[in-house]
Structures are given as structure tokens and as C-alpha cells.
Specification:
Length: 306
């Protein structure tokens, strides 16, 4: 099935290029299951076989089309049959990525007052974040290639002793997407295949796996993040490899408390246990990164002693 005429007939707006979530062979649009009208998280393969959101995972393609267009699923299936024999105008194909040298966006440097205000308003200790996590910031002009990184806090991603990528967090909650990673062609390691963690993380002690970088900042050096709830198998293997090096198998999964995150957290626990880890899921109210520091410190103390 060629998905593009189906999308056109259902009046579903989509993009196939010009956005960081767009990949050859895919049509992207806002996910109707988890993000409403924000971002282009949902990807439909142009051959009509796969419907997958980078945040909440796979969904049946006909149900996704039905939800996107507010059209009964039976009508969607009938329309899809019309284009069942048509091949996509732009068939999916593997793309060779031309690697470039790693670097930060133009204008990246010390945190500005606007960055510090954002962090202080979230009850972070700015100087500690700079010292421990090496964060920097961008101002009103910041680009890397064609991607705009203005007014973001940049977190270096360190893996095996070197900076291999970065992730930028917008300091305004009105900006979408809130997080932008280093362009894939400039990453020394794809950030979605590794973890955000401190080089001094002690893998011989329990490790807490969270969703995002601000959760790690709040919980400290024994926390690691998988950059969202839609983790990859490479990240599961990375956790297991590091834990085995440390001689300890205890892992605590602490995703946010929304239903999708709880389900994905449960799946991560199952994946880790299957690989021989002693994993369990803990659930708190809200976002770990939104905790006050005293609560976060007490929670981590409980986890380390438990």
C-alpha cells in the first residue's frame, strides 16, 4: 500500500522531509496517542506497514489513521484497499550517513542569565550542574547545519570517557520540541544507543534508570537516562554490560507516572530481568526531575540502601 494517497484522501497533514524526526521512507505527523498537536513524533512507513511513535512505540496502522482523521476504521481499511497494489512514490531504502566532525552549535558557551533563571525556577543548583554535568548554553543565534538550537541548555553526553554527543533542552516550555539532540551525522556514538550518565557512576551499586537528562540532574550520579520511554535494545545491552562490569545486577526503573511511561517502564524491567538483572519498577507521583532536591536525595538514599 502507498500510504501517501491514503493520507491525502483522509486530509492528514504530514511531512517526509525538513524535520529532525523525518527519515527517508517515512511520513511524519503529530502522534494522536500521546502528544496531540505537538511535534512530529509519529512515523508511518510509506509502504503502509508500520506505525511507530518515537515516544510511545508501535500502534496498529489502521487505528492510527482512524484516530488521526477521526474516520471510522472500517472506512480507513476500505480506502487502504484501493491503494493496496501501489508502491510508494519514495520507497524506503537504507541511507548512508556521511559522518562529520563532532562539534557544538555556533554560539555555545557559558550559561547566560536566562539559562540560570530557568534552572533556578526549577530548583536546580546552577553551579553544581555546571561543575558536575558540564552544561553550557546557547543564546539567540545558535545553529549546527540546518538545525536551530537557540536558547537551549546543552548537556554533553559522555560515553567511555569522551564526549560523543549532546542534548539541548529549550528554556521555554512553549518551544517544541523541548529536546534536540546532536545531528546524527555528527555524533561519535548515536545517543539512542547509549546512556546519559556521569563518568563517576558506580556500577557496583544500584543504578536508577530514568527518562530524561533533567531527571538525572535531580537524582545524581547513580541515575542514568535512556532519552525517553521508547528505549532501544542497544541501551538495554549497555545497562547490562556496565552492571556486569561492576559486579552488581540491581537496577531500579523510575519513569514518569503517566500510563504510557508506566507500561514502558514495566517492559524495560522485563527486558532487564530476562538478561539476568535484578530489576524492579518504582513509581512516584509526577516527574522525578520536578522533585525538590531534599526529596530526591532521600529517595536515592532509600534506593541505595534497599
Amino acid at each position: 500500500m502507498n500510504i501517501q494517497p491514503v493520507l491525502d484522501q483522509l486530509n492528514i497533514r504530514y511531512q517526509t522531509e525538513g524535520h529532525k524526526h523525518c527519515r527517508p521512507g517515512w511520513a511524519n505527523m503529530p502522534c494522536p496517542w500521546c502528544t496531540g498537536n505537538q511535534g512530529l513524533h509519529m512515523g508511518l512507513s510509506l509502504d503502509g506497514r508500520v506505525s511507530r511513535c518515537w515516544r510511545c512505540g508501535k500502534h496498529p496502522i489502521y487505528k492510527t489513521l482512524s484516530k488521526l482523521s477521526n474516520t471510522p476504521e472500517s472506512q480507513v481499511r476500505e480506502l487502504a484497499r484501493k491503494y493496496a497494489g501501489m508502491k510508494p512514490a519514495t520507497p524506503a531504502a537504507p541511507v548512508s550517513i556521511r559522518r562529520k566532525a563532532f562539534k557544538y552549535p555556533s554560539g555555545a558557551g557559558d550559561l547566560l542569565p536566562q539559562h540560570k533563571t530557568y534552572l533556578t525556577n526549577r530548583f536546580f543548583l546552577v553551579n553544581s550542574l555546571i561543575e558536575i554535568w558540564g552544561i553550557i548554553g546557547t543564546g539567540p543565534v545558535a545553529k549546527l547545519g540546518e538545525i536551530d538550537y537557540k536558547w537551549r541548555i546543552l548537556a554533553p553526553i559522555i560515553w567511555e570517557g569522551k564526549v560523543v554527543s549532546f542534548q539541548g533542552r529549550a528554556i521555554s516550555n512553549k518551544v517544541e520540541p523541548k529536546y534536540k539532540a546532536c545531528p546524527l551525522e555528527r555524533e561519535l556514538n548515536c545517543h539512542q544507543h547509549i546512556l546519559y550518565c556521569h563518568p563517576e557512576c558506580d556500577w557496583s551499586k544500584p543504578v536508577v534508570v530514568v527518562e530524561g537528562i533533567t531527571d538525572v540532574w535531580r537524582l545524581g550520579k547513580q541515575a542514568v537516562c535512556v532519552f525517553g520511554i521508547e528505549y532501544l535494545s542497544q541501551q538495554v545491552r549497555a545497562i547490562c554490560r556496565m552492571k556486569r562490569k561492576g559486579g552488581d545486577r540491581r537496577v531500579i526503573v523510575l519513569f514518569d507516572d503517566d500510563p504510557q511511561a508506566i507500561v514502558k517502564g514495566r517492559e524495560l524491567v522485563a527486558d532487564l530481568n530476562f538478561r539476568g538483572m535484578e530489576a524492579r519498577q518504582e513509581i512516584i507521583q509526577g516527574d522525578p526531575g520536578a522533585m525538590c532536591q531534599q526529596e530526591a536525595d532521600e529517595l536515592m538514599k532509600e534506593f541505595m540502601e534497599g
